[in-house]
Amino acid sequence: MPELPEVEALAAFLRENAVGRVVARADLTALQAIKTFDPPLSALAGLEVTGTARHGKFLDLDVSGLHLVVHLARAGWLHWRTGLPAAPPKPGKGPLALRVHLDPLDTDPPAPGFDLTEQGTRKSLAVYLVHSPSEVPGIGRLGPDALVVDREQFAALLAGRHGQVKGALTDQTVLAGIGNAYSDEILHTARLSPFKMADKLTDDELVRLYDAMRATLTDALDRQVGQKAATLKGEKRSGLQVHARTGLPCPVCGDTVREVSFADTSLQYCPTCQTGGKPLADRRMSKLLR
C-alpha cells in the first residue's frame, strides 16, 4: 500500500510534470472507483492543474479549484504516460481505473497524462472530485500528520489509545500517513514488539518510538522524492529491513525475520531486536507477548 513517503513523492512528481497543464479529458473505466457524482469528471475538461498536495495517504490534485482526490488503497498506483492513445479505453478491461489526458506542450509527444490502476480482485481504489478536500470523508477523519506531530502530541495521542502500538500507528484517525509496511519498520527501529500496549509505553519507549517514526519516514522521503513514479515502488522495497522479508536475516542482528499472519494482512518483526528473542504466536486469537 502506498504510504506517506510514496504519496508525497507522487505529489512532488505531479507538481513537476502535471502542474501548469490543462486537462483534456478523464476516462473512467472502473465505475466502482468513483465515489462522487457532483461535479462530474467531465467538469475537469479545459481546466488547468494548479497544484498538488497530500493528506495522510490521500493524493490531491488541485484543478483550478476542483480537487481530484485519490486513495490508492492496497494495490493501486499512478503511472505517468508520455503518449496516451486518443481512443477511450474499454471499461472493465484489466487494472485500469481512470485515465487523465493532459494537453501536450509544444515540446511533448502527443497526449501526456496518467493512469490510475489497481491490481487484484479486491477493488478499493477510490477517486473523488470535490470542491474542497474536507468533503472527502476519509480526510475529514484524519488525525495529525505523522511528520507534523511533535513529541508531546505524539505521547498524548498514544497515552489515550488502549490497544496495541502497531494498531495505533496505522490508525489514520490517530496518526495520518503510516501503513502496514512503515509501522513494521518503525517498530523494528524502536526495538518494540508490535503488540506492546500503546498506553503502557514508558517515557523511554515513547521517545524511541517517536524518533524511529521521524527517522524512518524522513529517510524514505529523502530517497523517494525526486524519483520517477515508475521507480518509487522499487525504492521503497530497497529500504525495508523487516517488512516483506519473512525468513531473511535481520540486517541489524542476523536473526531470522518472523511473520504474524491475520485474515487479510500480516506483519513482520525481528525476535532478537523486538521481543527479547521470543517469537510471537502466529494465530490471530493467541495470547500475545507484550
TrEMBL record:
Location of the Formamidopyrimidine-DNA glycosylase catalytic domain: 2-76
Native source organism of the sequence: Geodermatophilus normandii
The name this protein goes by in its record: Fpg/Nei family DNA glycosylase
Residues of the signal peptide: none
Gene3D superfamilies: 1.10.8.50, MutM-like, N-terminal
GO biological process: base-excision repair
Keyword Hydrolase carried by entry: yes
Alphabetical keyword list: DNA damage, DNA repair, DNA-binding, Glycosidase, Hydrolase, Lyase, Metal-binding, Multifunctional enzyme, Zinc, Zinc-finger
GO molecular function: 8-oxo-7,8-dihydroguanine DNA N-glycosylase activity; damaged DNA binding; DNA-(apurinic or apyrimidinic site) endonuclease activity; lyase activity; zinc ion binding
Family, similarity comment: Belongs to the FPG family.
